[in-house]
Write a structure and sequence with these properties.
Layout (H helix, E strand, L loop, with lengths): L1 E6 L4 H17 L3 E6 L2 H6 L7 E4 L2 E5 L5 H8 L1
Parallel strand pairs: 1-2
Antiparallel strand pairs: 1-3, 3-4
């Protein structure tokens, strides 16, 4: 099962990214955990300096922006 982490402190863009990630999972018809990570130490351990960020299975795919659903789906596949 894929693990999708939304790295951020709960800002509006972080919430938007969470919703887009959930929609991408739904459109793909797969099972995946979408987890919000708000601990700053964990976020910086990923090397992320600008939030929101998205990590899939421990690999950061985007930081400092809210990618489109189609981009997220491509990373999940």
């Amino acid at each position: 099962m894929k693990q999708i982490e939304i790295l951020g402190m709960g800002c509006a863009k972080c919430n938007q990214l969470t919703e887009r990630a959930k929609e991408a999972v739904k459109e793909l018809g797969i099972e995946a955990d979408v987890i919000k990570v708000q601990d700053i130490k964990t976020i910086t351990n990923y090397g992320v300096l600008i939030t929101p960020a998205l990590a899939i299975d421990g690999v950061v795919k985007a930081a400092g922006k809210v990618p489109k659903i189609e981009e997220i789906k491509g990373w999940i596949k």
